[in-house]
C-alpha cells in the first residue's frame, strides 16, 4: 500500500485527518459514515511510512483496507474467515467444494458469498458452511473469494491439473464508492419487490466491487447466465426476456417487462414496462410506463406514463403524465405535470409546472408555480411566483416582485393596484381595475351607457405599460378590448396623469378605436371619425376619442 508522510496531529476529527492524507495523494477514501467514527478526535505523532500502518493506528485492527484505482476503501471487518476447498474435474466441468468457518470459534458461516471472478459465478454457503461451485472449461489455478458482512474478504488458490500454454481470460473490475446512505436500489421499496433476498444478501456481502462482461441473458432477475452474481456484473449487452437485475449497463439493455441496474446505465436502455437505475444514466432511456433514475441523468428519457429522477442534467425528458425531479436542466415535456425543486431549462406541461425554488422557462396549459423565475412563466390560467426577473404571461399572475407581468389580473406584492372611474366622448362611464408591476399591468372593468333607445353594458379587458411614473406625473399606454353581445371594439390609449397624493390621481387622454356594432344595437358613437363602412348587419367605425377620470391606487 502507498507510503505517506504526515505532521503531528492533536485532537483532529478522523474525517478531517483522512481528508488531509488523501489530499496529499492521488486517491480518495471511501467509507460509510455510520461505521467509521468520522467525528471522533485523534492525536498522532509525526509519521512517515506505509499507509496501512497509519490507518491501523487511526482506526484500530477491526477494519479492513483495500486499495483500488482512485480509492482506498475502509471497511469494518472485525472477524476473519477460514476456508477449506478442493477441486476436481468432471468432464469439461471443474467442481469446487468447500467449507467456510469463523477463525475464532470454528463455527460454520452460513449465507456467505463464494465466487470465482473470471467466470462470474457465485453461490452461498448453506447452514453448515458448505458450498459448491461448478466452472465450465476452466484452465489454470482457481481463485475463490469469500465475502460476508463484518468479516474480512478471504481468498484461496486451488491448483487443479495444469495444462501448459493454455490461457484463461482475466476479467476487468471496477469499484464504486457508496452513494448517500439509503439512496440505492436495495433500499427502494418499489425495486425490492422484484429482487430476491439472496440477491440483496449477495450485494451486501460483495459490496461495491463490480466486474465487466460482454453480455448476459436473463429470464427473470434470479435466472440469468451469471446466476446470483448478475448483480455484481456490468454488461455491454443485456437481454432480459421478462426482467433483469444487473450491476449496470455500458452498451445496450432490452427487456420485455423491466430492467433494474444497481449502478449506472450508459448508452441505451429500453423496457416494455419500466427501467430502474440505482446510479446515473447517460444516453437513451425508454419505458412503456415508467423510468426511475436515483442520481443524475443526461440524454433522452421517454416514458409512456412518468419519469422520476434526482438530477436531470441535460437533454430531453418526455412523459404522457408526469416528469418528477429534484433539479432539472434541459427540456421537460409532460402531458399533465412537471415538478422539480429547481429548473434551469424549459418545462412544458399540459396542466401544470411546479418548481419549488427556481425555474427558467415554464409553459403550462393551466398553472405554473415557482419560487424564482429567471426568464418566462406562461400559463393558460394562472402563474404563481415569488421573484420574476423575466415575463409572466397568463390570465392571472401572482408574484412578490415582477416588472413584466402580462395578464388581465396581476397581484404583485410590491406592485401597483388601482380602481379608476372615467367617462369617454360617447358618454360611456367606465369602472376599471388595473394591477401589475413596475412596467406592465392588466385591466378589467365594466362600461355603461344610458341612451334614449336602450341601456348598454360593456366588458373591458386589456393590458397597459407605464412609460413615465415619477412622483407627480404619469404616462401610460393601453390596449383595450371592449365587448358585449352586439358590440366589439379594440382601442389603443395614451393616458397622461397627475398624482394628487400617494393614493389619488387624475388622468385624461386620446385613443384610437376600431369598433363593430350591430345596426340595431343602438350605440351612440361620437368622436373624430376616420373611417366608416356598412355591411348587411354591422356598422364598422374607426375613430379618435378621448377619455378621462379619477383613480385610487394602493400598493
Entry keywords:
single chain; 555 residues; mainly beta; Phage tail protein beta-alpha-beta fold; Immunoglobulin-like; 4 domains; eight-stranded antiparallel β-barrel; six-stranded parallel beta barrel; 4 helices; 62% strand; elongated; CarboxyPept-like_regulatory; Carboxypeptidase-like regulatory domain-containing protein
Q: How much helicity do the residues have?
A: under 10%
Proportion of residues in β-strands: over 45%
The coarse silhouette is elongated
The total strand number stands at: 46
Radius of gyration: 37 Å
Order of strands, widest sheet: 38-39-40-41-42-43-44-46
Q: Helix/strand/pairing class, anyone?
A: mainly beta
- The total count of helices amounts to 4
How confident is the prediction overall: mean pLDDT?
89
Low-confidence stretches: 163-168
Sheet of most strands: 8 strands, antiparallel, barrel
Distance between the termini: 70 Å
Described by its quaternary structure, the protein is: single chain
Number of domains: 4
Please describe the topology of this protein:
Blueprint: E1 3-6, E2 9-13, H1 14-23, E3 28-30, E4 41-44, E5 47-50, H2 51-59, E6 63-68, E7 71-76, E8 81-90, E9 93-102, E10 113-116, E11 121-124, E12 130-136, E13 142-147, E14 154-158, E15 173-175, H3 189-192, H4 197-206, E16 209-220, E17 223-224, E18 233-240, E19 243-246, E20 248-255, E21 258-261, E22 265-271, E23 274-277, E24 281-287, E25 290-303, E26 306-319, E27 322-328, E28 331-334, E29 337-343, E30 346-349, E31 352-364, E32 367-379, E33 382-384, E34 387-393, E35 396-399, E36 401-406, E37 409-412, E38 416-424, E39 429-436, E40 440-450, E41 455-469, E42 473-484, E43 487-499, E44 504-518, E45 528-534, E46 538-554
Parallel strand pairs: 3-7, 16-18, 18-20, 19-21, 20-22, 21-23, 22-24, 23-25, 24-25, 25-26, 26-27, 26-28, 27-29, 28-30, 29-31, 30-31, 31-32, 32-33, 32-34, 33-35, 34-36, 35-37
Antiparallel strand pairs: 1-5, 2-4, 6-7, 8-9, 9-12, 10-11, 10-13, 13-14, 15-16, 16-17, 38-39, 38-46, 39-40, 40-41, 41-42, 42-43, 43-44, 44-46, 45-46
Protein name: Carboxypeptidase-like regulatory domain-containing protein
Organism: Chitinophaga silvisoli
InterPro entries: CarboxyPept-like_regulatory
Amino acid at each position: 500500500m502507498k507510503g505517506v508522510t504526515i505532521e503531528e496531529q492533536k485532537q483532529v476529527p478522523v474525517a478531517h485527518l483522512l481528508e488531509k492524507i488523501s489530499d496529499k495523494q492521488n486517491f480518495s477514501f471511501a467509507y460509510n459514515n455510520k461505521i467509521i467514527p468520522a467525528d471522533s478526535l485523534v492525536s498522532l505523532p509525526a509519521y512517515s511510512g506505509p499507509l496501512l500502518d497509519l490507518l491501523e493506528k487511526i482506526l484500530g485492527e477491526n477494519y479492513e483496507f483495500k486499495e483500488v484505482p482512485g480509492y482506498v476503501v475502509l471497511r469494518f471487518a472485525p472477524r476473519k474467515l477460514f476456508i477449506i476447498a478442493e477441486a476436481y474435474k468432471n468432464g469439461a466441468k471443474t467442481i469446487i467444494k468447500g467449507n467456510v468457518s469463523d477463525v475464532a470459534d470454528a463455527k460454520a458461516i452460513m449465507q456467505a458469498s463464494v465466487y470465482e471472478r473470471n467466470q462470474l459465478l457465485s453461490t452461498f454457503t448453506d447452514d453448515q458452511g458448505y458450498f459448491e461451485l461448478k466452472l465450465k472449461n476452466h484452465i489454470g489455478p482457481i481463485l475463490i473469494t469469500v465475502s460476508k458482512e463484518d468479516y474480512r474478504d478471504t481468498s484461496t488458490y486451488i491448483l487443479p491439473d495444469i495444462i501448459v500454454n493454455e490461457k484463461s481470460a482475466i476479467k476487468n473490475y471496477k469499484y464504486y464508492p457508496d452513494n448517500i446512505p439509503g439512496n440505492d436500489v436495495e433500499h427502494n421499496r418499489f425495486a425490492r419487490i422484484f429482487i430476491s433476498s439472496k440477491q440483496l444478501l449477495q450485494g451486501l456481502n460483495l459490496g461495491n466491487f463490480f466486474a465487466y462482461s460482454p453480455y448476459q441473458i436473463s429470464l427473470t432477475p434470479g435466472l440469468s447466465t451469471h446466476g446470483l452474481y448478475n448483480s455484481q456484473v456490468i454488461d455491454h449487452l443485456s437481454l432480459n426476456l421478462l426482467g433483469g437485475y444487473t450491476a449496470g449497463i455500458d452498451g445496450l439493455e432490452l427487456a420485455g417487462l423491466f430492467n433494474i441496474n444497481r449502478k449506472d446505465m450508459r448508452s441505451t436502455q429500453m423496457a416494455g414496462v419500466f427501467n430502474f437505475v440505482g446510479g446515473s444514466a447517460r444516453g437513451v432511456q425508454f419505458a412503456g410506463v415508467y423510468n426511475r433514475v436515483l442520481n443524475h441523468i443526461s440524454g433522452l428519457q421517454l416514458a409512456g406514463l412518468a419519469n422520476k429522477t434526482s438530477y436531470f442534467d441535460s437533454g430531453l425528458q418526455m412523459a404522457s403524465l408526469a416528469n418528477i425531479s429534484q433539479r432539472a436542466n434541459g427540456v421537460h415535456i409532460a402531458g399533465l405535470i412537471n415538478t422539480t425543486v429547481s429548473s434551469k431549462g424549459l418545462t412544458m406541461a399540459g396542466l401544470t409546472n411546479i418548481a419549488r425554488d427556481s425555474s427558467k422557462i415554464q409553459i403550462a396549459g393551466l398553472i405554473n408555480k415557482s419560487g424564482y423565475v429567471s426568464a418566462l412563466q406562461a400559463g393558460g390560467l394562472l402563474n404563481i411566483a415569488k421573484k420574476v426577473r423575466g415575463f409572466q404571461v397568463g390570465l392571472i399572475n401572482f408574484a412578490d416582485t415582477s416588472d413584466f407581468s402580462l395578464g388581465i389580473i396581476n397581484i404583485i406584492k410590491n406592485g401597483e393596484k388601482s380602481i379608476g372611474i372615467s367617462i369617454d366622448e360617447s358618454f360611456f362611464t367606465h369602472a376599471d381595475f388595473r394591477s401589475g408591476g413596475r412596467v406592465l399591468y392588466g385591466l378589467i372593468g365594466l362600461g355603461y351607457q344610458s341612451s334614449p333607445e336602450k341601456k348598454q353594458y360593456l366588458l373591458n379587458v386589456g393590458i397597459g405599460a407605464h412609460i413615465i411614473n415619477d412622483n407627480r406625473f404619469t404616462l401610460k399606454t393601453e390596449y383595450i378590448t371592449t365587448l358585449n353581445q352586439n358590440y366589439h371594439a379594440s382601442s389603443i390609449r395614451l393616458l397622461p396623469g397627475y398624482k394628487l397624493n400617494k393614493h389619488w390621481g387624475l388622468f385624461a387622454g386620446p385613443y384610437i378605436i376600431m369598433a363593430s356594432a350591430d345596426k340595431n344595437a343602438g350605440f351612440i358613437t361620437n368622436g373624430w371619425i376616420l373611417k366608416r363602412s356598412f355591411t348587411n348587419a354591422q356598422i364598422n367605425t374607426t375613430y379618435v376619442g378621448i377619455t378621462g377620470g379619477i383613480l385610487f391606487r394602493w400598493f
